[in-house]
Amino acid sequence: MTHSQNEPTPPASGRKIPAAKIQFLPEDRIWISERIQEVLETGQLTLGRYGAAFEENFAAFCGMPLAVAVNSGTSSLEIILRSLEVEGKDVLVPTNTFFATAAAVVHAGANPVFVDMDPDSFAIRPEDVEKMLTPRTVGVIVVHIGGLVSGRMPELAALAERKGIWLVEDAAHAHGSALGETSAGAFGIAGSFSFYPTKVMTCAEGGMIVTRDRRLADEARIYRDQGKASFTQNAHVRMGYNWRLSEPHAIIGLKHLERLPGMIADRQEIAAIYHRELSRMVNLAALTVPEGGNCNYYKYIAVLRERRDRKDLKALLTERYGVSLAGEVYEVPLHRQPVFEKYPSGPLPVSEDLCARHICLPIFSGMTHEDANQVIHALEEVVG
Q1: Cis bond upstream, residue 330 (ω within 30)
Q2: Cα-Cα-Cα-Cα dihedral sign, residues 184, 267, 248, 103
Q3: Do residues 186 and 315 both lie within one domain?
Q4: Alpha-carbon distance 126 to 147, whole Å?
Q5: Cα separation of 375 and 170, whole Å?
Q6: What is the pLDDT of residues 347-358, one digit of tens each?
Q7: Of 50, 168, 317, 347, which one's alpha carbon is 20 to 30 angstroms from that of 250?
Q8: Residues 265-309: tens digit of each pLDDT
């Protein structure tokens, strides 16, 4: 019996589906290598023309006037917060986010205040944010989990403006995602992106700040280069750090940025298969993109009807079906992490439930329909 492209199929013997995979086409590797040879020859290995081009192109991609390249998504967040002078203040942070979101708040001298999650988007809800506001609150960080931009982002931005606080986007997952005509990173005063190797696009290690605020961009350029007033002037005016992005990293990022629309289209094609097939399943439901949304599917999030031991579930899918699940978003909410215990928070029941009750299906550029069908077959067998 043969299977059509649209039917879930049993796995081929020994066939493995990784949780994620980085794609660099052969011609792209050649292009990157040639330009790295060039910068090695010239000796301009940091803060050169490729870094400037990467900033310009990424800003244009996001529909923003300004971008500042740095060495990680974590440092991009901390630089934004330092530029906003948050020391001694409170910053609202989703509890279901990566350690770095709240850690950047702490490193910038502020206190993270954890907010529960929206079950529809895995983001945060305006009503929850409003309940958490105090006179010490200076801003809120919104995280586009899995690349999905919440349909309530306009409400969140309007709430921040009405209450006189700033809104920063942790868009580490959301390169190329959007809601309507607004790209991820363009809803608030600044957006932070990561180019870590697991992301939809990468430059090996790196990050980017996008903003419309000239003062913030100028401050970011000072902070990233040891707090120096300028690259050519050895006068330190801020307590900065070595947060520069090297030219080889920028070269890699330039090429992957060029490929990004195609890589997102690949992911969306796989997501469409998942969405169709999961709609027929009883015990697993997909997280859906809001009307007018464009998701890059950094993660494909699905919620289990009932809690299961994820470690056992992952082991079974891997060992019997050759399917590796991606990491959760996130396995343990931050208010339950030991390092943040000194920042008190009340119960955050939605995150405590959904962080324990979701999985992320494998999805990456270059994934085939056969791969996706193997994943669906495994889930039908194991989850039902």
Answers
A1: yes
A2: positive
A3: no
A4: 19
A5: 30
A6: 899 999 999 999
A7: 168
A8: 999 999 999 999 999 999 999 999 999 999 999 999 999 999 999
Q: Identify whether 17 is part of a domain.
A: no
- Token code pair at residue 341: 């215990």
Q: How far apart (Å, rounded) are the C-alpha atoms in residues 171 and 341?
A: 25
369, amino acid identity: H
| Nearest alpha-carbon partner for 59 in 213, 223, 224, 270 | 213
- Find all residues with CB under 8 Å of 10, minimum gap 6, and list them: 374, 377
Cβ proximity of 156 and 129 under 8 Å: yes
The answer to whether the CB of 71 falls within 8 A of the CB of 205 is yes
196 pLDDT above the threshold of 90: yes
326 vs 318: CA distance, rounded Å: 11
Distances (CA, A) of 50 to 35, 36, 45, 177, 241: 9, 10, 9, 24, 21
User: What is each CA distance from 93 to 100, 137, 158, 188, in whole angstroms?
Assistant: 11, 11, 17, 15
Single-letter residue type at 182: T
Confidence at 11, pLDDT banded by 50, 70, 90 = low
289: domain CATH number? 3.90.1150.10
Burial class (CB in 10 A: 0-12, 13-18, 19+), 198: middle
| Mean pLDDT for the chain overall | 95
Structure tokens at 145: 């989990």
E strands within 220-312?
228-230, 233-236, 284-286, 293-294, 300-304
- Provide the pairing of β-strand 90-94 with 111-115: parallel
> Do the domain assignments include residue 11?
no
What domain range includes position 375? 259-382
CA 275 to chain centre: 21
Spatial CB neighbours of 14, under 8 Å, sequence gap ≥ 6: 322
